[in-house]
Specification:
Length: 777
């Protein structure tokens, strides 16, 4: 009997071993896989497996070389594989303006370039969600065909201040624009069967000491401004992943905040993907146990040491196995969605030519015509152009940092003008070309290397007035490009950055004076990814075009707009203040050149705007402050001119069960075809919570309308969208009463109105979480 029992036991054990050996991951057996995994295997799955060789070479510094570090050379990171259970690795790569991987590889002479698309602020300024979705689809195709599973994009942090170094890759000062544009981008990328990672969640509003700063924000602006864009993107697009940010939020690291990552993100918004960290190394102030408990599923870039730390934390009882298993389950649900798990045979040969056409066209639609006196643009009867400014010859396609794309080329403005049949004056072009070559050789000789993945911007070339006078006699018109570069790891300064430098101001003044004396016009092109001071000089030139950082086809795109091949239809998604200090946030923001860049966090005397930043302005961000308080600006939120004109008519509003549906008819009343963006602002009834004078609740863009052609646009707004967050009741509250709907060309230019009556007050409860840990004053 004992022998029979022993035989039966051995058979059962053998069957279990065979079963375990044959158990391979699929979408239907995830719970079984979790049970079959050892603690050590689980811990590996919850941390990345290190940085790639090419990634370290690009960023500099040290780090662990991962198990799958160069599956895709230059990718930002990857996850571990577990062969015995059929768990494949996955690969993630930057970034928002196009896929970022290494363009060359040691084993081959072929190249692996990606398309450099317009930066985030440029795409958002198009206000065209269908266009953004198309751009996202093109980027997603390159992600798929180069063997990447998740694109670490889009960036969604709010433009709290024009001094933030990464505003170029973020969308707006307004959460509705941010959320809607991000949702379109995500839907476009993910239509290829690859994932996105919306970032940086949350309130990552500055680059200075970004890994140690405590952002202190009241609950209402946190909910209504800094989280709302993420909420819209999650609800409307369900990104595969959300990236938790570096910073602390109200005294707690976002990566360790259960209330941020689980209570709000998952329980309130219904997010069903994974949370991965921004690229954070081991630090004594951070805890793997707290991160897992909070709901952070993947620590990136990861290392064996971090995996071992998590194992130790579990054994020490610092985090429960139930928390670990929940994160592991979500990781497995993510893995089975990926192309790599499904065995997709990527080509490494996306259609870069077709995507270049997409970037050229999309860039033109985001350009904003700021000034156009006497119809200076599009160019007419102009053959010879005197082209000033080093940036005309060394065009800036995108920002620095992880958002920089390794692209095959960048079309400079001088090349774009030549391609369009215009003739830059040869004598001036030769001088700038020689200067550019000299500066590039000088940088090479002294070993100047790029900072955070972007080549150095060349200093502006001084130019004598007598040279300008000669050009004014020879050329038909002058064009001056003013460039700015910013990006990851640093914030901007006011002098010589937000403001023009003395050299730039003198050059602009001399050019305008010399050419106007000859009865000739001057056009300024702004090649940058952020707001700049314009009030003191915008009356000097005859036209100003904000081209942003328009991607690799930038020079061609600008030429298309200057010549009228494309009609600019972009509008600003952030306010251009008269002075930087007009922004209330400026007094609680690190200003480059005046604020220490090193951290003293948890020292006896923490440094303001470095170790902690008080969002003391509350709801007074951007137009919500300027418009409500009657503060004059240089260019208002939503502003942008066109080569044609538009009329608004027949406003309607119809109440529904949960909000309203409004319509407006837009007619092209000008002489050329064009598109118009209509912004729907809402003014709430008096009483209840104090609100801004008006807030953007919806927007829409027409198709290209021929002269005399009309289109009716429809806006659907529910009661929740009208709500404000009441901190005292911890609820979203929509007051009963009359709401004034304003159909506007920009926040200061209302073209038509209608009235909607909310019959009953509506209250939607929310968790009372994430209260400030410091006094906001």
């Amino acid at each position: 009997m004992k022998k029979l029992f022993l035989v039966a036991s051995l058979c059962a054990l053998g069957m279990q071993q065979v079963s375990a050996q044959s158990l391979k991951l699929n979408e239907n057996n995830i719970d079984e896989i979790v049970k079959a995994m050892t603690l050590e295997e689980k811990s590996k799955l919850l941390v990345g497996c290190g940085r790639s060789v090419a990634f370290l070479a690009a960023f500099g510094g040290n780090g662990m070389i991962g198990q799958h570090s160069d599956i895709v050379s230059g990718a930002a990171g990857s996850t571990w594989s577990l062969d015995r259970l059929g768990i494949t690795p996955t690969v993630v790569a930057d970034g928002p303006a196009g896929l970022r991987i290494a363009p060359t590889r040691k084993e081959t002479d072929r190249t692996y370039y990606c398309t450099g698309f317009p930066v985030g602020i440029s795409l958002a300024s198009s206000w065209n969600t269908e266009l953004v979705k198309e751009v996202g689809a093109a980027i997603g195709n390159e992600v798929l065909e180069y063997g990447v599973d998740v694109l670490l994009a889009p960036g969604m942090n709010l433009h709290r201040s024009p001094l933030c170094g990464r505003n170029f890759e973020y969308y707006s000062e307004d959460p509705v624009v941010t959320g809607k544009i991000a949702a379109a981008y995500v839907n476009g990328v993910q239509s290829n069967g690859v994932g996105t990672s919306i970032k940086h969640y949350a309130a990552n509003s500055q680059e200075t000491n970004r890994k140690g700063v405590n952002d202190v924000v009241a609950q209402r602006p946190l909910r209504e401004l800094y989280l709302k864009g993420f909420e819209i993107a999650v609800r409307e697009a369900q990104p595969w992943t959300v990236m938790s940010s570096y910073n602390l939020l109200n005294g707690e690291y976002t990566q360790e905040s259960y209330d941020l990552l689980t209570t709000i993100l998952r329980k309130e918004w219904g997010f069903n993907g994974i949370v991965m960290s921004d690229w954070t190394d081991k630090a004594p102030t951070r805890s793997p146990a707290r991160e897992v408990h909070a709901g952070q599923d993947l620590k990136m870039p990861g290392s064996q040491e971090l995996s071992d730390d998590l194992v130790a934390d579990v054994k020490a009882g610092k985090v429960s196995m139930a928390d670990v298993d929940l994160c592991v389950k979500r990781m497995l649900e993510y893995i089975v969605r990926t192309p790599r798990f499904k065995g997709y045979k990527f080509s490494e040969n996306p259609d870069l030519k077709a995507h270049a056409a997409v970037t050229r066209q999309s860039a033109t639609e985001g350009m904003v015509l700021l000034e156009n006196k006497a119809e200076t643009l599009p160019l007419k009867n102009v053959e010879n152009l005197a082209v000033f400014g080093i940036t005309s010859y060394d065009f800036i396609a995108g920002g620095t940092g992880s958002g920089n794309v390794n692209k095959a080329y960048t079309v400079s403005l001088i090349e774009g003008l030549n391609n369009a049949g215009l003739k830059p004056t040869q004598s001036l072009s030769d001088v700038y070309t020689a200067y550019k070559t000299y500066q590039e050789n000088l940088n090479a000789a002294v070993g100047t290397r790029s900072s955070m993945l972007g080549k150095p911007v060349l200093p502006e070339m001084p130019i004598a007035r007598n040279v300008i006078d000669v050009q004014a006699k020879e050329a038909d018109m002058a064009l001056l490009t003013i460039g700015r570069q910013a990006g990851e790891g640093r914030d901007r300064g006011i002098d010589n950055d937000f403001n023009l430098s003395a050299l730039e101001r003198q050059m602009l003044s001399d050019i305008c004076d010399a050419f106007h004396m000859q009865g000739k016009k001057v056009v300024v092109v702004l090649n940058m990814g952020n707001a700049i001071e314009t009030a003191s000089w915008k009356d000097m030139p005859d036209a100003i075009l904000m081209a942003w950082q328009p991607g690799q086809e930038g020079g061609n795109s600008v030429a298309d707009v200057l010549t009228g091949k494309a009609n600019p239809s972009g509008k600003l998604t952030m306010t251009f203040p008269i002075n930087c200090t007009d922004e209330p946030s400026t007094f609680n923001f690190p200003v480059a050149g005046t604020t220490p860049q090193t951290s003293a966090f948890r020292a006896p005397t923490p440094v303001k705007n470095v170790d902690y930043t008080l969002h003391a302005e509350g709801m007074d961000v951007g137009y919500r402050y300027f418009n409500t308080n009657g503060v004059k600006v240089s260019y208002p939120f939503g502003y942008g001119l066109s080569y044609t004109t538009f009329g608004y008519s027949k406003p309607t509003v119809k109440a529904g069960k949960d909000g309203f549906v409004a319509t407006i008819t837009v007619t092209n009343t000008g002489k050329v075809a064009g598109k118009e963006v209509v912004q729907l602002y809402v003014s709430a009834p008096a009483g209840g919570l104090e609100k801004p004078a008006q807030e953007l609740k919806a927007f829409a863009k027409t198709r290209e309308l021929q002269p005399g052609e009309s289109q009716t646009l429809t806006f659907t707004v529910d009661a929740y969208t009208l709500a404000s967050f009441n901190e005292s009741t911890s609820a979203w509250e929509t007051a009963a009463g009359k709401y004034t709907l304003k159909f506007a060309a920009n926040v200061e230019d209302v073209r038509a109105t209608a009235v909607y009556t909310q019959a009953k007050a509506v209250s939607t409860p929310a968790a009372n979480v994430l209260a400030p840990n410091m006094e906001l004053k």
